[in-house]
Amino acid sequence: MSSEDAALEALAVLGDPVRRGLYRHVSGTPGEVGRDAAAEAAGISRSLAAFHLDKLVEAGLLEASFRRLSGRSGPGAGRPAKLYRRAEGERAVSVPPRSYDTAGRLLAEVVERAGLDGELQAAARAEGEAGGEASGDGTDPVEVLRARGFEPFWDAGTLRLNNCPFHALADQFPALVCGMNLAGIEGLLAGLKGGQGWTAEMDPLPRGCCVALRPADEN
């Protein structure tokens, strides 16, 4: 089976609206999600949630693990719970086929070799600011970041980003791409009417974005 066929088969699993909702809930939740929590979020029974979650694991879209939630071990500790999280890797299909990832990798390599980090960050900041200004008055930065695929979530007073939209490039060119990302988010906050006073800084998550944000009242 070709990689394109494998991606098509995996994505076809998301055609079911229940599975799609479960996938979005699990992938947008930091850490691991149990069957009970997933069922409650989807508004379905635990057994039905378990069936669909395991189908997503079979498709390679989720990963499953087992852990005792009580933290105890030995007799009387109970059976380990089955937990789910978003699988590593990506599934992408283009019809007709395109190779934007190859172009992005080559462009990043040229920019890094030429030492054009500053110019890239300036362009990212300008693009982010223009996007923020186009969003209108009073727009919530959290919702703008969610619409852009960052999957924001609150960690006490810090807004963290569960997903890196530039993951593949950030793995290959971390300093270049993370610097671009930070500059773009800083520009976005500057352009948003609701972003005044917010700050963004490098504070990477193990499996998420390199940038964390704090609102004005937390600074």
Provide a concise account of the structure shown.
This protein has nine helices and seven strands; from the N terminus they run H-H-E-H-H-E-E-H-H-H-E-E-H-H-E-E.
Question: Would you mind describing this structure in some detail?
Answer:
The chain is an alpha+beta fold and 219 residues long. The protein is built from nine helices and seven strands; from the N terminus they run H-H-E-H-H-E-E-H-H-H-E-E-H-H-E-E. The strands form two sheets. Strands 4-5-7-6 form a four-stranded antiparallel beta sheet. Helix 2 crosses helix 3. The protein is globular and about 55 Å long.
Give the helices and strands, then pairings.
Elements: H1 3-12, H2 17-27, E1 33-34, H3 35-42, H4 46-58, E2 62-67, E3 81-86, H5 100-114, H6 117-133, H7 141-147, E4 152-155, E5 158-161, H8 167-172, H9 174-191, E6 199-202, E7 211-214
Antiparallel strand pairs: 1-3, 2-3, 4-5, 5-7, 6-7
